[in-house]
Hints:
This protein is mainly α.
Amino acid sequence: MTGQEHTVLNTNQNRSLHSRLLDRNPELVQKLNKHILEDPERNLFKEFDKNGDNIISVKDLQAELNREIPTLTDAELNTLITELDSNRSGWINQKKWDTIFPK
Length: 103
């Protein structure tokens, strides 16, 4: 697979995930766009990953998102966590984070 094909694949996967979130909860997407995606230089994953091990527990992620976006409802937070932790491991890594919040 060429680099260009890989980029297109990743872009299509991101659109699909973004579309699912948009379909489920457009208000959530608006809040995420406003608070998280407005500064492309900011890397919230690294900010949330306090110990630098490249994973964030779902519990810590919930606390950080509540701090970062205080207007998130429990339903919105649960929707986002469900997408990020789709395998229910209890952990989010940078790769999974990037499927919703591309750089």
